[in-house]
Amino acid sequence: MIALGFDTPDIFWLAPLAAAPLAFSPLRIRKTAAIAAVPEDRLSAAIAVVLRIAGCAAIAALLVGVAGPYRTGALVDHIGEGAEIVFLIDRSASMNENFAGRAPSGDEQSKARAATQVLRDFVAGPRKDLAGVVGFSTSPMLVVPITDRREAIQAAFAAAARPGLDHTNIGRGLAMALAMFRADESGRSRALVLVSDGAAVIDPHLQTDLRADFKKAGVRLYWLFLRTEGNARLHDIPESGADTPQAAPERHLDLFFQSLGQPYRAFEAESPEQVHAAVEQIDRLERRPVLFTEIAPRQDLSTPVFTLAVLAILVLTLAKLAEIPAPVRRGGAS
Amino acid sequence: MTPSAPPEIVYRLRERIHSHMAGAHPSAALGGYGRFHDQTTFLRHPDARRIDLRASLRDPFEDIHVRRFAERRAADVYAVVDLSASMAVAGACVKIELARTVALALAWSAPGVGDRFGLIGCAERERSPVFQPATRARAVALRAADSLRAELCAGRAADGFVATAGLLGQRRSLVFLISDFRWPPGLVESVLGRYAAHDVVAVVLVDSEEENPPDWGLMALADSESGERRLVFMRPALRRRWAEREQERQARLAFLAGRGRPPIFLRDRFDPADFSRRLLAV
């Protein structure tokens, strides 16, 4: 809960002072023989009210300002549209190449850069995703745990666009990505987006573990397959004899994913435009209300309060400057 | 006491007075002194000193004729002074000071021509802090007039004018009502009604500052009597309305007193010559 607090609330013992302008005038009172000689005037009456309010406001605002008001920090629940998404991004060396399988030259983009660029746009949109990022090559790297901090996620994607290293060890990457979904928050919609340009054989032991993990986490799986020109398509069935996980790892990974029993979709992308289209589709599919909490920091409120006090005092000063000075009497008071 | 003698004021009464004391004013009384009036028979006016021999000898019926003279008699002059708090407000002038000057002049002048001077201070009803019955003793009259000071002005209202009319007695007197006449509506009429039996002069004390407020700026005004406060944002339009209101008030005072003497407006200062001129112009 967000609540107001004060550093030195003792100062409020002086609060009755704020009522003083109701009884005292900021201007010097001039005695007049008969107030009835003064014509009724609405503008004057309005100014009188404004000055009273300004007087009360000035004292009250100064008191509040001196008391040091702040808004307490708290965990705030928000409801947004989106999902809890873990991006599992291939950081292997092949991601440094462009879709044609060569080192990018001129204004060409590497696959990693093309994919992360699209993902950054995705995260920067109006969605309220909780996202985590895991990179993997030979071994997985936890980049950002599941969070709603856009800057962190953006930075993670920016980092993923840097040139990668080594091989593709998809199994351990999946294991780490699945481990990031915490078991207790089962109410959320969860998705795992795998971005890779290739596949690898998953150890059969690990396969059983992964099956269990997928069931437990209950995630929907999207595979954004960045196909390099000339590589086999996911659904190409090689001639018999070559249909082994070692010869066609992508096809067998696809088959493995299909056998998980969880919602699964694979997207093949051969150009940045196709990556974009695929991510748009994921965007459409992963739209569900998501409840997430944010830490609102403690906020100092004295600036607006002092600003109010300054404005009120300014009004009073203007009134004082506009005051007609009492004429000097000859021979003093009599 | 003031070091120098107060200025002399000359005044005249509007009608012939009824009085028993010899003085300076035309009266209804016929007697042995004064301006010749008529002749009458000795039986009607048995004054052996004023037997008109020539008329008596000329009369075929042998009546004895006596001359009658319109005698001059002394009047009572009263100053009825407002002692409400508004009189002590210092503007371009302090009104009670002005009232004191007028009262001193009257206290000096009235015994000088044989009239009696009395002084009544009025504030709230049932309360007359200053009361000097009519006296011919100049010193007593001057002391009473001199006692009019700002410290006395503590009244919250001026309705004492109605009650103090009874202190004047029955005989027709010259009464100066000295006040700023900033009274609630209706009071002027009822006061003038109460003093209708007398020759009333309304001396309206006017502070020129109240007539001419400043053009621009803010003023926090407080009523001297009720204490009511009001903030006023002066500007030419409001100033015009203010001045119009003041003119209306003065015109209304003149209208109300219209059947008697016109009111005398004293603006900040007292000019005895002008005052006398106005008093004589009846």
Automatic annotation (TrEMBL), chain A:
Spell out the CDD domains in the cross-references.
vWFA
Pfam families, per the entry: VWA_2
Known InterPro entries for this protein?
Answer: VWF_A, vWFA_dom_sf
The record's listing under Gene3D superfamilies reads: von Willebrand factor, type A domain
Q: What name does UniProt use for this protein?
A: VWA domain-containing protein
Q: What is the lineage of its organism?
A: Bacteria, Pseudomonadati, Pseudomonadota, Alphaproteobacteria, Hyphomicrobiales
From TrEMBL, chain B:
Q: Give every DUF58 domain span.
A: 47-251
Matching Pfam families: DUF58
Q: Which SUPFAM superfamilies match?
A: vWA-like
Record's protein name: MxaS protein
Q: Which organism is it from?
A: Rhodoblastus sphagnicola
